[in-house]
Amino acid sequence: MTNNHNNQKPSAIILLSGGLDSMVVAGLAKAQGYNLIALTIDYNQRHRVELEAAATIANHLGAAEHIILPLDLTRFGGSALTADIDVPKDGVDETSIPITYVPARNTIFLSLCLGLAEARGARDLFIGVNALDYSGYPDCRPEFIKSFEAMANLATKAGVESAEKEGQGFTVHTPLLHMSKAQIASEAAKLGLDSAMSWSCYDPTDEGLACGQCDSCRLRQKGFADAGLADGTQYA
Question: What is the pLDDT of residue 134?
Answer without folding.
Answer: 61
